[in-house]
């Protein structure tokens, strides 16, 4: 499955977020081919978004990839124990990204179960840290271009408008009222709360 063109990501973060629903996130990290269907995302939009890591143009080695060109992976560590993966959007120099919140496992379930120490499919990638762990994504992939192995996004059947849900983002204190979380309604792989 060929990667999406990098031009796919060079659009407003909220537009890319909605368009990512239904696409296939593929990983060959560690030689274990795995694929997820993206079912939940959140947009974080630049220096005016208090929940964005680049609020008020904050810049550091930790978030440098967030300022990169569209189509990069921005991977960060949270709560001192989890990796989370984001897709950089918009234009180089403007810090906006889409957090990959949840995916429906399609291929490589044995590898995902091994990495996650879980047997239940709906618990393999039903949250941003779970998704990264299931696919083997870590800080080593920060700044990776999503146009080649070991991690890329390929075209999948889009989630139709009537199946798309929208809500406030989860787990943020500032900017919590912004409707920038998008998910597939009724999909059991969406992270709780399921909207």
Average pLDDT, all residues? 95
Number of domains: 1
Shape, per Cα inertia axes: globular
Rg measurement, Å = 15 Å
Q: Which residues form runs of ≥5 with pLDDT under 50?
A: none
Named at the architecture level, the CATH assignment is Roll
Helix content: 10-25%
**Count of distinct strands:** 9
CATH topology: 3-methyladenine DNA Glycosylase, Chain A
What's the N-to-C terminus distance? Answer: 31 Å
Please sum up the structure shown:
By secondary structure, the protein is an alpha+beta fold.
Q: Your description of this structure?
A:
This protein has about 200 residues and is of the alpha+beta class. It has one domain: Methylpurine-DNA glycosylase (MPG) (3-methyladenine DNA Glycosylase, Chain A, Roll), CATH 3.10.300. The protein has three helices and nine strands; from the N terminus they run αβββββααββββ. α2 (about 110-115) crosses α3 (about 130-135). The longest helix has 8 residues, at about 15-20. The radius of gyration is 15 Å and the shape is globular.
